[in-house]
Amino acid sequence: MQLHIEREQQKKIPNARQRPGTMSERIPVKDVSPVQIHKPDSREHDNNYSPRSHIYVRAVKGPLETFRRYFGFFFLALFALLPWLRYNGHQAILLDIGEQRFNIFGLTLWPQDLTILAWIFIIGAFALFFVTTFAGRVWCGFLCPQTTWTYMYVWFEEKIEGSRHQRMKLDERSMDFDKFWRKSLKHLCWWLVAILTSLTFVGYFTPVDTLFVEFFTLQTGFWVSLWVWFFAVCTYGNAGWMREIMCTHICPYARFQSVMFDKDTFTVTYDTNRGEKRGPRGRKVSREALAADGVGDCIDCSLCVQVCPTGIDIRNGLQYECINCGACVDACNGVMDKMGYPKGLISYTTETKVKGGHTHIVRPKLVGYAVVLLVMVGFLALDLFTRIPLDVDIIRDRNQLYRETNDGLVENVYTLKILNKSQQDGRYFITVEGLDGHRLTGNREFTVHSGEVYVEPISVAIDPYQLESSIVEIRIKVQSLDDEDLNVVAPTKFLYR
Predict the structure, then answer these.
(1) Nearest Cα residue to 331 out of 308, 361, 365, 359
(2) How far is it, in rounded angstroms, from Cα 291 to Cα 298?
(3) In the chain, what are the helix, strand and coil shares in percent, each to the nearest 5?
(4) CA-derived radius of gyration, the chain
(5) Mean pLDDT for the chain?
(6) Residue 430 — φ and ψ, nearest 5°?
């Protein structure tokens, strides 16, 4: 090949050797062997296209799995019990979209309090960024509802259909009575969990105590029933059928989480230097003898693949499909115990440590996320601390700017809209500031129920000879009679001519 190229170059430039300095006599050529492409054998597949192979997750025991289960049970119980809590005689958490009112224990949020909701979402985002930078996708592996409900559905599979090997054999055989009743019971349990999950979730947005009674007595309205069945179908489909597809193809977090990773992020990692080269061996063969022959600690049992909920092989390196659940860590440590090898062939570690360096916990990116997170929490606390549970809106009469009364006074008409954003009824009193000698007509003292918008028309009149200009800046003050520190002063204008 090299000789052929040199001859071709000589044909194109015949005088290259007679002209020194214009071109070297030999052109360096790198010999590249052709890449061998391994095409799949179509004879091994029954279908021309298969979106995925079904993943049969194997049960695993270990400290990480125990912690993940108890951690998931805690937040699952929290999710199920929170709608049933009562506070001051009403549902503690009720996100009433129809009434545009969110009750969260003693706090009531209205559309005017959108900034508080924005701060909560921003804090959640930066908390996720901080945790991901430090410990990878632990949210996905330990707290994500998709993972929690998927493991719950897999638990029903194990109890009804058997172990991983038994489930594979069950799916391979033709339908018979044993397979029929097992499959039917499994899907029945899945649907029951999906319906209870959906009812609980909808119970955050509508009174939960009446929701359950009306649903099971077939008395719910059209929209409530629609949303209950919609979320039930989503739960059943996501946790029962889609499973890892949600984590690997639909969830956007899997796509951008690698941006937050660095060499000091703790992720589930396979120690290649220690494990390779891998291969089966007997327990009686000493580890030292195997190491002398270049054989590593990995016995190639593939248990790390069988317990993975997304079906990846962690030995191929860090992959975006890995959700950092640690199932492969428990499986591998169990094998290492049986072989008499030290644990940690697969572990939560960093790229820096694997390469023999020292992991830096405190680093600029992590500190930056922590600082921004604390600042956002400070803004939320400030917003909550300075929030006034009373809102006043003043609307001037649009028909005429002013009018003259029979007794010669100039009168302006206003409409007050007073929103009581607290969870208790309140008594209020109206005064006008900045206009000496005025006369106020209207109901000056009134009661506004919790969450009610009270509308009160008032008129302000004054002798025109007391006005210094045609436009006077005035202030209408709404004072609480129950709390002397609670008041709102709304500016407006008094017009004449």
Answers:
(1) 308
(2) 11
(3) 45, 20, 40
(4) 36
(5) 86
(6) -105, 135
Q: Residue 311, class by beta-carbon neighbours within 10 Å (0-12 exposed, 13-18 middle, 19+ buried)?
A: middle
Query: Per DSSP, what are the bridge partners of residue 430?
Result: 478
**Residue 4: what residue type?**
H
| CATH code, residues 390-495 | 2.60.40.10
What's the rounded Cα separation, in Å, for the pair 406 and 352? 88
pLDDT at position 27 is: 58
pLDDT of 182 reads: 96
Tokens of 461: 């009149």
- Gap between the Cα atoms of 86 and 40, Å rounded: 60
Residue given tokens 């044909």 in the structure block? 11
User: How far is 384 from 381, CA to CA, in rounded Å?
Assistant: 5
Sketch the domain layout of the chain as residue ranges. Answer: 1-33, 63-87+136-258, 262-354, 390-495
CA distances from 205 to 95, 97, 209, 311 (A): 5, 7, 12, 36
Torsion angle in degrees (nearest 10) through CA of 42, 46, 48, 52:
-100
The pLDDT tens digits for 456-465 are: 999 999 998 8
CA separation for the pair 491, 494 (Å, rounded): 10
C-alpha closest to that of 331 among 299, 297, 294, 303: 303
Neighbouring C-alpha atoms within 13 Å toward the C-beta of 23:
14
Tokens read off for 407: 């007794």
The answer to whether residue 15 scores a pLDDT higher than 60 is no
Residues forming a β-bridge with 281? none
Torsion-angle region of residue 311: left (phi > 0), alpha (psi -120 to 50) or beta? left
pTM of the predicted structure, to 2 decimals: 0.78
Measured between alpha carbons, how far is 297 from 12 in angstroms, rounded to an integer? 58
**pLDDT > 50? residue 83:** yes
Q: Higher model confidence: residue 250 or residue 19?
A: 250
pLDDT tens-digit readout, 280-321: 888 888 888 888 888 999 999 999 999 999 999 999 988 888
Q: Is the dihedral of CA 198, 201, 203, 205 positive or negative?
A: negative
Closest of 107, 110, 106, 86 to residue 96, by C-alpha: 110
- Residues in the chain, how many? 497
Beta strands, E only, 366-409: 390-396, 403-404
User: How many CA within 13 A on the CB side of residue 342?
Assistant: 6
Please, which residues bridge with residue 428 across strands? Answer: 446, 480
Closest by CA position to 417, among listed 394, 389, 440: 394
Report how far residue 258's alpha carbon sits from residue 269's, in angstroms, rounded to the nearest whole number: 15
Smallest CA-to-CA distance from 191 within 143, 228, 145, 243 is with 228
The answer to whether residues 102 and 205 touch, using CB atoms and an 8 Å cutoff, is no
Q: For residue 428, give the nearest of 452, 403, 460 by alpha carbon.
A: 452
Element (H, E) at 453: strand 453-462
